[in-house]
Amino acid sequence: MKTVNQSFQDEVRRRRTFAIISHPDAGKTTLTEKLLLYGGAIRLAGSVKSRRAQRHAVSDWMEIEKQRGISVTSSVLQFEYMGHMVNLLDTPGHQDFSEDTYRTLMAADNAVMVIDCAKGVEAQTKKLFQVCRLRGIPIFTFINKMDRAGKDPFELLEEIEQVLGIESYPMNWPVGTDGQFRGVYNRVKAQMEIFEGGHHGQSQVSAITGDIDSPVFHDLLGETLHKQLMGEIELLDEAGNQFDLKRVLKGELTPVFFGSAMTNFGVQPFLESFLELTLPPAPRFSQGKEVDPERPDFSAFIFKIQANMNPAHRDRIAFLRICSGRFSKGMNATLSRNSKKVKLAQPQQFFAQDRSSVEEAYPGDIIGIHDPGIFRIGDTLFENDDLIQYDDIPVFAPEHFAKIHAKDSMKRKQFIKGIQQLSEEGAIQVFRPINSGIEEIIVGVVGILQFEVLEYRLVNEYNVEIRMQQLPYRQVRWIESERFDADAFNLTMDAIIALDQDDHPVLMYQNEWSEERIMERNKGVVLQPIARRT
Ligand code: GDP
Fold first, then answer.
1. With pLDDT > 90 as the criterion, what percentage of the chain qualifies?
2. Best substitution site from 32, 262, 264, 267 to test ligand 1's pocket, by max atoms within 8 Å of Cβ?
């Protein structure tokens, strides 16, 4: 057993690891860019802009991958701010790759939810929010695009509470709306913050701060706006929720910030407050027991495997979230699934398009290591003899299904290998139907573009052309039953039973009505929307 030294503890305690969730177009890319600008990681905003291309059609998306020689689907951005080491887990912009986002959220300690002030809570935000809920992590809300016309701020708070079922506490309040956004009233510091400059968002803005009653603000805002603001703040204080940090940390209360990622108004107060409120990496669970991040022995889990990070090498990178101990380059660790010793070679950190070699890393950090084909999503790696096995990463229910087979039956071997590797990477989920007359493999995906990626990659990496036929099923649920007997199961015409990649039975069906009817016919069966592999 190693001993803890002060600098190790300091490194752990200054880590803050989070991911941003949002519906496409709400401003996640812009906010990411601005956080990096304030973090000093980029001088002029705009460097991350090309990442927007990831929202376009899959063909463009793959073209970009080829040209840039790197996957646009993943990266981890690290920067220092106010003495903290901030890890921002970047997630795919395209909602068809949200399965990737779900898994990335497993590695985050906090989430920032970006909401477009004109649109409110949108479909994708809702889905991603549910995944954060599942983890019970703190969720911070950034209401974006305040420089434009939007919904009334009170209405937005109500929408968050109603639609998502989480209480909200505005940390600041917008000064001026609908094209007149000037700044915010900071409720924690009880001060006005009126922003200036920023060269249309290219550089940091400066702020005029002071007491709300100061004549400066009466003059700056004019009497009408000033009076309205005073009234709104009074209303919030009297009728709004109480701030309670414990509830924030449990994910029961979301601190809300107003701002504009485009003009940088409100970005800095948000970042600073976020860093003040969030905690360092929390203990994670290994077989029901907490593992302290400050435990000196290294441990980590794999939440993502990404192929073709560099098509020239056809390499696979496994992304590790470090949970305890210090990581150092070239160290040895045990893979808990099979107790094999592995050398953690070629560790890398990713910053937008660039990757750099890592010498050491700490709990909360994410690193990528070369995967010679031995890792799986959910694997734990640990140092020394005490077995650590972190809870597995849940498998989320796909929403689209297709049966597939190789066009050329002589290529069945490559086909099977390709399908297996892609499913290990989590790029697709594979099901084998039983008693249904369907001979082929069924592939399930969360977003329809994943099918195109599958087809493209099977041709390019495994030299296999496939025939694919989409199936009408829209839902899959894992069947929980002590003694499951497929033959005795009473199905409807529009449903089938299949086995997942771990031979766990699942029910595939078209809509809620089929589910209801099946549940009526098979009393006592429990259906789960998420599979846990262990
Ligand atoms: P993402 O899909 O969530 O990553 O969204 P982007 O960051 O790419 O933003 C989508 C669009 O909204 C882009 O045209 C941005 O320039 C614009 N946008 C982002 N933030 C703001 C903002 O604060 N104000 C305004 N007016 N537009 C914004």
1. 59
2. 262
